[in-house]
Design a protein that fits this description.
Layout lengths: L2 E3 L2 E3 L10 E9 L3 H11 L3 E2 L14 H23 L16 H63 L8 H7 L2 H15 L9 E8 L3 H11 L4 E7 L4 E2 L6 E2 L1 E8 L2 H13 L3 E3 L5 H57 L3 E2 L5 E9 L3 H14 L7 E5 L16 H10 L10 H15 L3 H15 L2 H5 L5 H8 L1 H18 L15 E3 L12 E3 L18 H34 L3 H32 L5 H10 L14 H20 L1 H14 L12 H8 L12 H25 L2 H25 L4 H39 L25
Antiparallel strand pairs: 1-2, 3-12, 3-13, 4-12, 5-9, 5-10, 6-9, 7-8, 11-12, 14-15
Helix pairs in contact: 1-8, 1-9, 2-3, 2-8, 3-5, 3-8, 6-7, 10-11, 11-15, 11-23, 11-24, 12-15, 16-17, 16-23, 17-19, 17-22, 20-22, 23-24
């Protein structure tokens, strides 16, 4: 179907202009509202407007259902966290046949969550008890060993004491206690008491043992010493392996400690200090028999707890596997219901409270599909009343929608990154498909490097189905999205590389022998003179004989610089021509007569003329100095050109072109503001009921600068005049600066060629000329890394960014407004790609 603009009939082009949009209203019965929104979401061609914007989220009709969906989404996130911890991943197989009711799912998710929380709580309790028993067993074993050594030492001292003090009585015990450490005195007192049987002099010492984090052990010891004024004995033994702390569940390096003290006051102080330092205390028996019995009992309880914990983990994993099998299906259903109810909240309730009213944008080609979806929703929901579909008239600017595929979408994204095109203005994305990779290739011309880029692009394109279903990293995701851009850039790079005759900077005689040969045998190795033309001109690209000559760089510089100017002027002319098609499409004759025509005259009177001189010089082989011609065209237009004259009548032609360029500046500046003022005055004086020919939304946008086509501000002549002045100055200065900006094509092409030449001659050839195999291998490796890292990565990125700038600034500013907004339809198909 052809698209009819205001004042012209344009042939159909899917991407040249955005799809024709229409604002529609749908009146939906309450009983079929949910199914209707669901079917429209499956279709994905309707953008809803928020008709309840004045209401808060809690005042909307379906706030309760949204809250339920949010709670189920929270439960699913809870399940996913536990599946991630357990190393499980949700099953990708979604059972489309299973019809799950949202109410049943809500009950099931609640039960599963309660069961999982209970299992986690029980598991934590069991694990804590298990870790405490492990610590207890460690304390029992360490303390038992400590007391065994202490008792052995005490027995040795008793025998020594009996041998040396056979004539002394129990009255010497206090002196002994003063000269012996407390912990040893505790044992020796008991021994001496048994010997003397003097219970009236019995001294009773207490002790406590446990574990403390190693990092706190020094401070713990100092605080104990100060609190008891040194009236204690502390012994610490470092545990070799980290211990799982029962409270935190993390592995911590700890020390086993035993503290001996005397008196209740010291005991209370020690217990409080242990609590404040997070030390875990455990009971310990005095008798050896009870100690062995305690170790045996603790070991048995550890074994029982281990069996119980393993059984609980198996049940826990089995439950998570059941959840994982249906997780994706549940998650998709919850996302879908949440999106549907969020959309339902955007609808307004009819006064009868029996219907919902929806408004939104849709493409005109989708009218039949939307009506079919409404009929199916009515039938499937057994509604007695069908939905009503009607088209509305609106002054609001419609959204912009382009139908793209996997090839064109990346190019459209390049344009959209600059700005979304205004509704049905000319889309630069159509031309970007060719011009973007071509300008890139002009700067990256080397068919060897182009082949490498082609292989990289094929590595992304061939397995694209595999990559499409995976989540890639940010950089790889961006590269994969632009795989067809890379493909086109590589193909154009091969083409321009053949023109430049460079394969990793090496020229080849692919299209026949060189047109030049030596005059005689004496010039066989000459690179500066002695070459004469003996054949026809090299049929395609640069003659390989230029490589290595003294005039190679001046020749290539001249060629690429002039080529850059020709390409730049051609692309800028294309941009101005597209502004003409925009003006004709929107019926804006003011832009045709007072923008397009003077801009074309100004640009081509100067730089179009320069392009013609370049082509004439190439065709005639003239030695004329183009710099001199262009400079003195402004400084001395009436002077004789002399040897710089390229064709008859050049001097009067230059004068005419110069006058046209000067006339074009006020032509752009003055008429349009005054004509706009005149049209505005006529409209408000009632002399014309309809806008005059040449006034439309685009003109009013220029007057008011409103977004989305809204109009309401008063006409300000001074503002319009200043705006036109800025626009004129910008174009005049931009014509010069933009043309100079295209010289980056020459600069980057030269840099790429010279870098490639340096890597080839100074790395590869230099190392290959040596007789050492290792040096040759190192040279090949260095050349490969330099080529990939610098020329294939950094230079590719550099040329890409420069080509991007040339399109955004030099090309698109000639016609592209980019002040539209994107068509964002309600679609359930994109829910699979969302993480939230």
């Amino acid at each position: 179907m052809a698209v009819r603009g205001r004042g012209c009939f344009c042939p159909p082009m899917d991407m040249m202009r955005s799809e024709a949009m229409q604002l529609v209203q749908i009146i939906i019965p309450i009983e079929s509202a949910h199914r209707t929104i669901s079917y429209l979401g499956d279709l994905g061609l309707f953008q809803f407007k928020d008709l309840s914007a004045e209401k808060s989220p809690f005042q909307r009709t379906y706030a309760t259902q949204l809250k339920r969906c949010g709670e189920m989404a929270r439960q699913l996130r809870f399940f996913k966290e536990h599946m991630t911890k357990a190393g499980l991943s949700p099953s990708k197989n979604i059972n489309a046949e299973a019809d799950i009711d949202l109410d049943n799912l809500e009950v099931k998710l609640g039960e599963l969550e309660a069961e999982l929380i209970e299992m986690n709580a029980n598991s934590e309790k069991l694990q804590r008890a298990y870790n405490e028993l492990l610590e207890y067993k460690l304390v029992l074993e360490t303390a038992d060993e400590f007391f065994y050594k202490a008792e052995s030492r005490a027995a040795d001292q008793r025998m020594e004491f009996e041998a040396q003090n056979t004539d002394e009585g129990s009255s010497d015990i206090p002196l002994l206690l003063e000269q012996t450490p407390l912990w040893l005195a505790y044992l020796m007192v008991n021994i001496l008491q048994e010997m003397s049987r003097d219970f009236s002099k019995q001294v009773k010492l207490g002790f406590t043992c446990g574990l403390i984090p190693r990092e706190k052990s020094m401070a713990f010891e100092r605080i104990l010493f100060r609190a008891t004024r040194g009236n204690l004995y502390l012994n610490q033994v470092a545990v070799s392996d980290p211990v799982v702390d029962p409270a935190s569940g993390e592995k911590v390096e700890k020390n086993v400690f035993v503290v001996f003290y005397s008196g209740e006051t010291a005991k209370n102080k020690i217990l409080k200090i242990c609590e404040s330092f997070g030390a875990n205390r455990y009971p310990f028996a005095d008798e050896m028999g009870k100690q062995f019995q305690m170790i045996f009992e603790v070991s048995g309880r550890i074994s029982e707890l281990k069996t119980t914990i393993d059984a609980g983990l198996l049940h826990h994993d089995s439950l998570l596997q059941t959840i994982a099998y249906q997780f994706e299906q549940w998650n998709l259903l919850v996302k879908k219901e949440k999106a549907i109810h969020h959309t339902l909240n955007m609808l307004s309730m009819d006064v009868t409270k029996k219907c919902l009213v929806a408004e939104g944008w849709c493409p005109t080609f989708a009218t039949k599909q939307i009506q079919d979806a409404l009929q199916r929703a009515t039938f499937d929901s057994n509604s007695q009343v069908g939905a009503i579909f009607q088209v509305l008239r609106s002054q609001e600017s419609p959204p912009t929608y382009f139908r793209t595929n996997k090839f064109t979408s990346s190019y459209q994204e390049i344009v959209d990154a600059y700005g979304i095109s205004k509704y049905q203005e000319a889309n630069p994305g159509v031309f970007t498909i060719i011009t973007f990779p071509f300008l890139f290739a002009v700067m990256f011309g080397d068919w060897g490097h182009g082949i490498c880029l082609l292989l990289a692009a094929l590595c992304l394109i061939v397995p694209e189905k595999k990559f499409s279903g995976q989540k890639l990293g940010d950089i790889l995701e961006m590269t994969f999205g632009g795989r067809y851009v890379i493909l086109m850039m590589s193909l154009f790079s091969i083409y321009t590389g053949l023109i430049y005759n460079e394969f990793f900077s090496v020229p080849f005689k692919l299209f026949g022998p060189s047109a030049y040969a030596c005059r005689d045998l004496s010039c066989r190795d000459a690179t500066t003179q002695g070459l004469i033309k003996v054949r026809r001109t090299y049929p395609f690209g640069v003659d390989p004989v230029w490589r290595g000559t003294r005039t190679e760089l001046p020749f290539l510089n001249s060629l690429k610089m002039k080529m850059s100017i020709l390409l730049g002027v051609a692309q800028m002319d294309l941009g101005i021509i597209l502004s003409y098609f925009n003006a004709k499409f929107f019926g804006n004759s003011l832009n045709v007569w007072y923008q397009f025509i003077p801009q074309m005259i100004f640009l081509n009177s100067l730089f179009g003329y320069l392009s013609v001189l370049i082509i004439v010089k190439w065709c005639t082989g003239s030695q004329a100095d183009l710099y001199h011609i262009m400079i003195y065209m402004f400084l001395s237009p009436t002077d004789d050109l002399g040897e710089n004259q390229l064709f008859p009548g050049q001097k009067p032609l230059q004068i005419v072109l110069l006058l046209l360029a000067f006339i074009a500046v006020p032509w752009m500046l003055l008429p349009k503001p005054f004509l706009l003022k005149k049209q505005h005055a006529k409209r408000h004086q009632g002399q014309s009921d309809a806008p005059l020919h040449g006034t439309d939304d685009s003109v009013e946008l220029e007057e008011h600068h409103d977004s989305h086509g809204s109009h309401g501000h008063e006409f300000e002549f001074s503002e319009v005049l200043v705006h036109q002045l800025i626009h004129t100055i910008e174009f005049v200065l931009g014509a010069v600066s933009n043309t100079a900006s295209y010289l980056r094509l020459w600069a980057l092409s030269l840099a790429h060629s010279e870098l490639s030449k340096v890597f080839y001659e100074k790395v590869l050839l230099l190392t290959w000329g040596m007789n050492n195999v290792i040096i040759r291998i190192v040279g090949i490796i260095l050349f490969a890394f330099a080529t990939v890292g610098v020329l294939l990565v950094m230079e590719t990125l550099s040329a890409f960014l420069h080509a991007l700038r040339l399109h955004w600034v030099e090309f698109q500013n000639k016609f592209y407004e980019g002040d539209g907004y994107k068509f964002q339809p309600f679609s359930l198909a994109i829910l699979n790609d969302d993480d939230d």
